[in-house]
Design brief:
It contains five helices and seven strands. By secondary structure, the chain is of the alpha+beta class. A hairpin with a 2-residue loop joins strand 3 and strand 4. It is elongated.
Length: 238
């Protein structure tokens, strides 16, 4: 843009551009700072979860706090109820199939146990290994309602999420724990159900987002400097 073109630009437009650039710089810096705080939070969360997931198994809590107990490694001794296992639709690293959900009576009440994964060809319980009465695994919060694309249909015995309350209502179990246990794999490596498939992984892109916002702030700071420099040159040339 030539100096003559700058001189013809209305003063109010130059002021508006200056204010807009300054405001965007502030917004982008604040967004970058927010992402840095989220980064610190995510790193603390990952460290806490890894400590829980790979620690010594403890007794399941009577009162469940998702913030404190999700992925906590626990050990439970009890006996499975006489109810038939419920198959919940699943997609795992082994392919599509089902989670085998069974209610277990423990000392503190009934807990739903995800015994593991079975492919479509292994849906028959007669093909499964015996269910152990002592299990270890990771605590997971209930998954209410269903998924984004599908909903549980208890009337048709069609399940797409591990909704402990809905499962308990369907089997008329009464009040059960608001969590389930992803059981570790037991028995032979090739036995079904295949436990121990819990993925303990968190997506952490906060640093990339923060750098993006800071880069945007830098670009607008350069633009702001350019506007001020051009205005200064025009002022000196008059």
């Amino acid at each position: 843009m030539t100096d003559q073109g700058i001189a013809r630009r209305p003063r109010w437009l130059s002021v508006l551009l200056l204010v807009l650039c300054a405001a965007l710089i502030v917004v982008f810096v604040l967004l970058g700072n927010w992402q840095m705080r989220r980064l610190a939070w995510k790193q603390d969360l990952i460290a806490a979860v890894e400590t829980r997931a790979y620690g010594v198994p403890v007794t399941p809590p009577v009162t469940f706090d998702p913030e404190q107990h999700t992925y906590l490694r626990v050990a439970l001794q009890g006996s499975y109820t006489d109810d038939a296992p419920v198959l919940v639709k699943a997609v795992t690293e082994l392919g599509p199939g089902y989670w085998v959900m069974s209610p277990m009576q423990g000392s503190a009440g009934i807990v739903w146990v995800n015994r593991g994964f079975v492919p479509p060809g292994q849906k028959n319980p007669a093909l499964w290994s015996a269910a152990p009465e002592t299990i270890s695994g990771l605590l997971r919060p209930t998954e209410p309602d269903g998924t984004l694309l599908e909903r549980n249909d208890p009337g048709l015995d069609r399940w797409v999420s591990r909704d402990t309350a809905a499962l308990s209502n369907a089997l008329q179990l009464g009040l059960t724990m608001p969590y389930f246990i992803d059981a570790d794999h037991t028995g032979a490596p090739e036995a079904w159900p295949r436990g121990g498939l819990t993925i303990v992984r968190f997506r952490n892109t906060h640093l990339a987002y923060a750098l993006t916002w800071y880069a945007m702030a830098a670009l607008f700071a350069i633009a702001l400097g350019g506007i001020l420099w051009q205005a200064h040159r025009v002022g000196r040339g008059r």
